[in-house]
Amino acid sequence: MTGNIGQLGDGDAAATQQAAQLLASRPAPAAAAPLASAPLSVRWRQEVAPYAGVSCIFDDKAAIASHKTLRVVNLADGQILWQREVSGAIGRLAWWPQAGLLLTGCWDDKLHGWDAKGEALWTFTSEMAPEMQRFPPYYQRAAAPGIRSILPHGEMLYVGSAGTLEALDRQGQLQKRVYVQFGPLEELIPIPDSHDVLARRLVSGDPVLHRVSPKLTVRQQGWGHGLRDYLGSFGYNQVMHQFVLFFRNGQNELRVANVFNGVQNRLVLRDADGKALNEVNFGAGKTAASVTNSCYDRPAMLDTTMRNAAIVDLDQDGTPEIAVATANGKLYVFDQQLKLLRMLTLPSGPRTLAVGDGEFFLGLHDGAIVRLAAQGDLQLVGRLSGAVLTLDRVGGQLLAGSAKGELLALALE
Q: In the predicted model, what is the mean pLDDT of the chain?
């Protein structure tokens, strides 16, 4: 399959047929042939927790969260340096280099700031938008728990929760709070060549992004449609922005790869102003993940159809490719114009992804860690005892964490 499959047909039926024929995203694939084994050297392997659900790399350490426990391990040997308990399940971790703070966002709306040695410096409590509290059943507290996103942005810290965006200083003091209805603010994304950030909601009444200035003025960015309006705008819990990835093409023009998960699963290519330039329709999919999520602190386990996406320069020619992995075990690699370059079948559903130099790695549901380089086939490079929930490339090693609490460090050099 080397033809450009980005352009849709004249109607929804033609688009759906095209997606079914060319992308084959339904039904689930048959069992794949065994992968070639190319194991990476194991630097260390460690059982650290009931499961390793959220990770954050800073300095020469890794922070690993498991329910209400935060552990910090030494990347050199996997030894636990310190651990702390908090009052609510930890769902988000971030390192703020300018402030030297490790940040933990919790189910109970608490954001904790720690120094690198584990001293608790401050705790901030986020406030849910009043409109969210008054609008059951979709946006009650049980349906939209806690801190959903953390973004250190220079001297300011942005915190997204259930319909609320807050800005804090280094001391954890609130500088400004605005309400962004409706839907939890799942991700805050820096915009290249700008001081603004994008706010991506998990699910909402309208699949739009919001653009936030340093003064916390908020306006709708749009980007809720593809080439055809009726394939993009589904109300309420029917569609979500799963990934928003910025990159520069061969002409150094800023582009956006925008992945939707929902009734129609799509990859949309946009220019810097958000205009849709091209589109791939992956066919009918599941509705977006509900905000009612009993596994808040295990975000990688959400049962979404569009599982992973990344920008990677596989052949290292300065022109990036776009990789997309779907829950049914398909891996697609597109060029910067959305021409399909490769389609591969994974032996298990993908859970997480990490990009390297001229290669990338996928952590799978069955515990396998696989690698894809420029022209090679998929290779099995390591394995964990449970589903791979975290995967981080740091320096010369790859750090993976599993649903059974196992950490594995693999040497890349």
A: 81
Cα–Cα distance for residue pair 259/233, rounded to 1 Å: 13
In the chain, the N- to C-terminal Cα span, in Å, equals 34
Alpha-carbon gap, residue 35 to 50, rounded angstroms:
29
Cα separation, 262 vs 237, in Å, equals 8
Radius of gyration of the chain (CA): 21
Give the whole-angstrom CA distance, residue 404 versus residue 352: 15
pLDDT for position 408: 95
What is the CA 373 to chain-centroid distance, rounded? Answer: 21
Among candidate residues 48, 79, 76, the one with its CA nearest the CA of residue 64: 48
Q: Which two tokens stand for residue 107?
A: 């189910």
Q: HSE (CB half, 13 Å, CA atoms) of 389? A: 29
* Euclidean distance between CA atoms 156 and 321, whole angstroms: 32
Q: Which residue has the higher pLDDT, 373 or 142?
A: 373
Please give the single-letter amino acid code of residue 79: Q
- In 3-state terms the chain splits into helix, strand, coil percentages (rounded to 5) of 5, 50, 45
Q: Which two tokens stand for residue 82?
A: 């310190």
Can you give the pTM of this predicted structure? 0.84
- CA distance linking residue 329 with residue 346, whole number of Å: 5
235-266 confidence digits (pLDDT tens): 444 567 778 999 999 899 999 998 887 667 88
* DSSP element (H, E) containing 14: helix 12-22
DSSP state of 4: B
Examine the pLDDT at 191 and tell me if it is beyond 80.
yes
Q: Quick one: CA dihedral 230, 233, 239, 244, positive or negative?
A: positive
